[in-house]
UniProtKB/TrEMBL annotation:
NCBIfam families: PRK05416.1 (NF003828). Residues 7-158 form the RapZ-like N-terminal domain. This is RNase adaptor protein RapZ. Transmembrane segments: none annotated. Keywords: ATP-binding, GTP-binding, Nucleotide-binding. GTP binds at D62, I63, R64, G65. Residues 167-286 form the RapZ C-terminal domain. It comes from Sulfobacillus thermotolerans. The keyword Cell cycle does not apply. It holds the Pfam family RapZ-like_N.
Length: 290
């Protein structure tokens, strides 16, 4: 049986990378439409499902639509009622990053005419809270290069993976550098003995065999890993049933150099053994500790 066309709604904060995202979807073979009025989504989806030559379509919808944008949630609900599947990709970035990007581009925010840039950004964020809650995938582009964003989108939405493909993204990080903003689940392994306080291991990372062996030699580390494996194995089908194409799991230690890296690597191997698609990102590995 032929897979139905994949419909992705791209939305999010102005300056967070929607234009770049649309270019990625175009390169992936999606039929892309920018700023389609929300009340036309159901008609577009019906046409899409009657066009077997189209494998996927991506619609960019954002605050530029003015009063029409507020119809988006209702229009998506119509798709659910008639059984037409879709996914929502929501792009965001922190306020400082958005301000910097606007200053570099010298463009005006769609809501800036009603106040200062900061006020416009905050008003937009409030207006998008409901649609963010419906998002299947949230990507925080604050620390991403265009190439990294392209890779993230390609990994999740490439058409040859099929609409039923599901991916677990494991992110090691340091709590001292902040939580991953797009994490669906966060686990804290700071209770384990810290290799940072072992002179021979301090300059190494969790990717080094000596650090891995040190962390995993403790019974509580092995037991914790087993519990996390069991929990994720249980949760993955629940997220799949909800229709999410990916979940992001954060594994945190103090600096993101040792324990979190070890655990992210081991969880990836366990998930792969179970047949899940898993990838690892060591967010803070390049940030050396003092």
């Amino acid at each position: 049986m032929m897979e139905p066309p994949r419909l992705v709604v791209i939305t999010g904060l102005s300056g967070a990378g929607r234009s770049e995202a649309m270019r990625v979807f175009e390169d992936l073979g999606y039929f892309c439409v920018d700023n389609l009025p929300p009340n036309l989504i159901s008609k577009f989806a019906e046409l899409l499902h009657k066009s077997p030559e189209v494998q996927g379509a991506a619609l960019v919808m954002d605050i530029r639509g003015g009063v029409f944008f507020h119809q988006l949630t209702a229009s998506l609900r119509e798709l659910e009622v008639v059984g037409l599947p879709y996914q929502v990709l929501y792009l965001e970035a922190d306020e400082e990053t958005l301000i910097r990007r606007y200053k570099l581009s010298r463009r005006r925010h769609p809501l800036e005419a009603q106040g200062r840039l900061v006020e416009a950004l905050r008003k937009e964020k409030r207006a998008l809270q409901e649609i963010r809650g419906k998002a299947d995938v949230v990507i925080d582009t604050s620390g991403l290069t265009p190439l990294q964003l392209r890779q993230r989108i390609s990994d999740i939405f490439r058409l040859d993976a099929g609409a039923s493909s599901f991916q677990v993204r494991l992110v090691s990080f340091g709590f001292k550098h902040g939580l991953p903003k797009d994490a669906d689940l966060v686990f804290d392994v700071r209770f384990l003995p810290n290799p940072y306080y072992v002179d021979d291991l301090r300059s190494k990372t969790g990717n080094d065999a000596a650090v891995d062996q040190y962390v995993m030699r403790f019974p509580q580390a092995k037991e914790t890993l087993a519990h996390l494996d069991t929990l994720l194995t249980f949760l993955i089908p629940q997220f799949q049933q909800e229709g999410k194409p990916q979940i992001t799991v954060g594994i945190g230690c103090t600096g993101g150099q040792h324990r979190s890296v070890v655990f992210a690597n081991h969880l990836k191997e366990l998930l792969l053994e179970h047949g899940s698609q898993a990838l690892v990102e060591h967010r803070d590995l390049e940030l050396r500790e003092d």
